[in-house]
Amino acid sequence: MVALSCHELLRVWEAGHGSPPYRRALLLLSASSDNEKVEDLASLNIGCRDARLLALREELFGQDLLCLAQCPACGERLEFSLTTNKLQAAAGETLPRELQVDAGEYTVVFRLPTSQDLMALEGQYTDTSSLQSQLLRRCLLGAQCGNEKTAFADLPNQVIEEVIARMESADPAADIQLALTCPGCAHRWQALFDIVAYLWHEIHTWAIRMIREVHLLASTYGWHEADILAMSPQRRNLYLELIGT
Ligand SMILES: [Zn+2]
Prior knowledge:
Bound molecules: zinc ion
Structural class: alpha+beta
């Protein structure tokens, strides 16, 4: 992974404006990777992609993550902290190219979803469950009932659920679930930690602040944007203090 300059990070933020999450993830990976081709980055499975994004997050903003959640039972807002280390512990191993589920008479062979799959399905789904079913269809490599070939549409729900469960357990970093307990009503639930949404939100907040700082310094001193972005945060902050912001 290569370190991203302020200039490069702003460029990524601009390029990802209005883009779907998978595209933002690819822009970030591609800007911070060491000469890897976009096609290769797009063919990483989602857990591997997300592990790299966690490492990038650590590089950009440090290890500590402040998270907010809302209790689904009583609506109380919950604030808690995590570390990138703890989340990275869920990832790491090399994942198999092909997986197999044997459920009763059925045998299903499949692979794990990648960014390419998400890219191919852009605009073709209306909700999470239709995305999940279309992703499964794409990732299915073969299915049999006894000695007969079976189509995806003919697989019983129970078999499909087993395939989904196996996909999730094979690539835990693609689906990081946090076990939360509400301090107000003691309700317990699982919440998904979405690194793409989390990191993009942070980058957006950072970019707005950075542009404001460039505006203040450029209009006070007449400096160029590129020179202001190339300064260390300490130097920028000192100048900002001097102009009374
Ligand atoms: Zn509650």
